[in-house]
Amino acid sequence: MNLVIVESPAKAKTINKYLGSDFEVLASYGHIRDLPSKDGSVQPDDDFAMSWEIDPKASKRMSEIAEAAKRADRVILATDPDREGEAISWHVLDVLNKKKALKDKEVQRVTFNAITKASVLEAMAQPRDLDMELVEAYLARRALDYLVGFTLSPVLWRKLPGARSAGRVQSVALRIVVDRELEIERFRPQEYWSIEADLAADSPPFTARLVKHAGKRIQRLDVRDEATASAARAAIAAGAFTIRSIEKKPVKRSPSPPFTTSTLQQEAARKLGFTAQRTMQAAQKLYEGVDDTGGLITYMRTDGVYVTPEGIAQARQVIEERFGPAFVPAEPRYYKVKAKNAQEAHEAIRPTNIARHPDSVRLDTDLAKLYELIWKRMVASQMESARLDRTSVDIETPDGLTGLRATGQVVAFDGFLAVYEEGRDEKQKGAETDEDDDSTRLPALKEGATAKVEAIRTDQHFTEPPPRYSEATLVKKLEELGIGRPSTYASILTTLRDREYVRMDKNRFYPEDNGRLVTAFLEEFFAQWVEYDFTADLEGQLDQVSEGDLDWKVLLRDFWSKLKPATETVLARQGVIDQLDEAIGPFLFPEKPDGADPRLCPLCGTGRLHLKASFKMKSSFIGCSNYPECRYTRGFGAGAGAEEAGSDRDLGVDPATGNPVALKIGRFGPYVETAAEPGADKPKRTSLPKGWSPATLTLDQALRLLALPREVGIHPEDGKPITAGLGRYGPFVLHAGTYANVSDIEEVFDVGVNRAVALLAEKRAGKFAGRGAAVAPLKDLGAHPETGEPIHVMAGRFGPYVKSGKINATLPRGTTPEDLTLEAALPLLAAKAATAPKGKKVAAKKAPAKAAAEKKPAAKKPAAKKAPAKKPAAKKTAE
Fold first, then answer.
1. 73-82, 383-392, 407-416, 595-604: which has the minimum mean pLDDT?
2. How far is residue 562's CA from residue 144's CA, in Å, rounded to a whole number?
3. Quick check: 589 pLDDT over 90?
């Protein structure tokens, strides 16, 4: 018998069908061991000895695998084909050896890039030994991350109150976000004017822009004031124009390569609005497969764009069948990765069977969208180039002093554009080159024809700062810099949010004050470890370890010999906060327009403001040097108005009551206040929600806050009121003692009864899930016409769904639960039922040990030989 060990149960189930009765396939449920989160798990003084701890949930599973290994003739480690997969196999092998389950057993390692019968059988025919160089690269990475985390983080805690922790790669990613914010704050808008004219030359009207004025060539930013724009307008109005030249230029556009992990995350963010984590979760399911047909895509953690000859041939066949021979290039397309440290041997992400069109696969919403994206990208990557006819028309006055240009293009042949076009990142407005937007189509024109001016437009613009990073652009930046690996991008971004070093607003990263302070601290005292090049070079050294060109212990010794002294120096240093205050003074105290001292205390008028730390409150803040006589304090933030944000100010008068409304800065942050309500002995006040700037707060915003909590309406089930308000943990709706979070503060002001009921139902469903408590449906649709089962609309943890018997179908995005009809629900249920595994049985729950003992007489064998029954350990999902 052959024992095959994989990571996930879904993978095990599929592979077991391919291999037959001579094989037993078991899952380790992902990583089974990790370094304990305590000091001493990596010991530099003992040649970097590492103490591993087995996950309690994996302990029982590994005992089952060990028993199976003892019965087997051969053990095959078949985890994922990357460093993490190699590491999981190494951990499993090490544990089995310690359990003495591999005595005289043959142990082999196999890898396959897709979970298909052909791929699995081919891999089984080509076993190899465990790649210890890949394992050592994994060990080095884990040791580095551990040493940085458990060495730098205590320094932060002791020297910078309120800081969470510092990770090796996360700190560099945070610096990228902070550096972009600094660019934005330093940016000064530049005025410029655009001048366009609508012309006709015995043709329909077309638009041209000014490219020459007073005999000089004009770039986009050259017209910087209204006077120049007016002079150019007058010159166009007075001029007689003739078409001097028409240039037609054929242009080819080639398709993008198939997806890597990074480009998949970027495109899914641009086109589907998925976070990196959501993309990888969906990709994992597509890789493992959702039915008996096996995996739908190849392995999704890769930085290579290589595609097997079989995959290319299949793509070319599909293209010819679906689009015709003209769309198939004469030669197959082969791609190379431009990113640093790419491992070219890894195959790109593509469908395992390209002939399986997205329309023929029934999948849940996220999986269907991602599969379609992957399929289109792969097919397009092997299609013929698009051919465009780009036209430039130059129109001038007889003296040549004033010139206009019109550009446009015509798609002569769609090529790959018939299937897919890559999304584009935003670019800074006003900073474009002299190239026009040539996406418009021009009418038929002739050289020498007279062009009549029909209208002239002069518009004022201002250049804009570089855009903040989205998930797509930040992943792209990390890849360009060679920081992190494809499998780490999702966790990097998640960690930054979880530590509250950044926040997401309209899908853009904004650094929080704590994040900026941590970055400033690290740049001031640990500059080397947050340098982009240093982190990228370290990734390169880890790749050298995986290739066998560098000893992993040598890498660790060199790293530790520099990090340890640096941390000891900072721990011994006095006046760290004062040094930070000086280093980031321009951020904390920006220059005032009138030239006054930005550090002058606005309360006492004599003290100076400084960065201060409260170890008792575990926070940092701005305070006055005259403390305790002057107790002025505020949080810190940069940009115009930061000083005013730290001062109390009147906002106006409440028109309903006639009472003044004021912004005040307290010890715990800014808040708004007005006079006490009748019968109350304290003023009415409320804190500003996260994301609202004290510097730009208006009277209208303050009145909306002071009106909270507000009554949303009456709950339809029990007639009790629903209210909406702002609490310690953010905006919420409240009903009968149940609080449900609202997505953002703006929704609190206009959330309606239907939305509030759905939020509360979701909260209650999550709160009582698994406790046997019945959850009331949002809506009863009646009985199913075929089965007679009742159909209900329910609130689930991940959104509303429709339920009938054992079939649950998620509602499409944008569907309001209260508006769903029986006619609309039936197709959803039918589609879900069609994708459910055939013959699936619900396993009966095991009786608790105590209950089993009461029903069955105790065994007569000595108790020591048989442990009491235990509750099955919770299963761990594959990583």
1. 595-604
2. 12
3. no
Strand order, beta sheet including 807-810:
779-783, 790-796, 799-804, 807-810
CB distance 665 to 639 below 8 Å: no
C-alpha span between 302 and 342 (Å, rounded): 9
Estimate to the nearest angstrom the gap between the alpha carbon of 543 and the chain centroid: 25
Nearest to 437 by CA among 371, 392, 496: 392
CA distance 799 to 778: 12
User: 421 phi and psi, to 5 degrees?
Assistant: -135, 130
The verdict on 448 and 497 lying in the same domain is no
pTM metric for this prediction: 0.68
* CATH number of the CATH domain containing 218: 2.70.20.10
Tally of CB atoms within 10 A around 677: 12
Q: Using the 3D structure, point to which of 707, 733, 751 is the last residue of a domain.
A: 707
Strands 74-77 and 106-109: parallel
Q: What residues are labeled active site?
A: 299
| Rounded percentage of the chain residues whose pLDDT exceeds 90 | 41
* Sign of CA pseudo-dihedral 271, 272, 278, 282: negative
For 834-852, give the DSSP string: HHSPTT--PPPPPPPHHHH
Q: Would you say 350 and 319 are in contact if contact means Cβ atoms under 8 Å apart?
A: no
**Would 713 be classed as within a structural domain?**
no
In a domain, residue 731? The reply is no
Ramachandran quadrant class, 645 (left: phi over 0; alpha: psi -120 to 50; beta: rest):
alpha
pLDDT at 430: 41
Alpha helices in 610-744 (DSSP H): 642-645, 699-706
Nearest to 791 by CA among 801, 7, 452: 801
Structure tokens at 624: 């006055």
DSSP assignment letter at 268: I
**Pairwise CA distance, residues 152 & 146, whole Å:** 10
Mean confidence (pLDDT) of the chain: 84
Q: Which domain holds residue 120?
A: 2-130
Cβ-count burial of 20 within 10 angstroms (0-12 exposed, 13-18 middle, 19+ buried)?
exposed
Please give the share of the chain, as a percent, with pLDDT higher than 70: 87
Establish if 448 belongs to a structural domain: yes
What's the rounded mean pLDDT across residues 549-562?
A: 94
The 3-state DSSP class for residue 317 equals helix
Tokens describing residue 688? 């500003």
User: Model confidence at 110, in pLDDT bands (50, 70, 90)?
Assistant: very high
Residue with tokens 């370890």: 545
pLDDT at 871 over 70: no
pLDDT digits (tens, 9 = 90+) for 721-780: 999 998 877 889 999 888 898 877 888 898 889 889 988 888 877 644 433 334 567 777
CA distance 352 to 428: 39
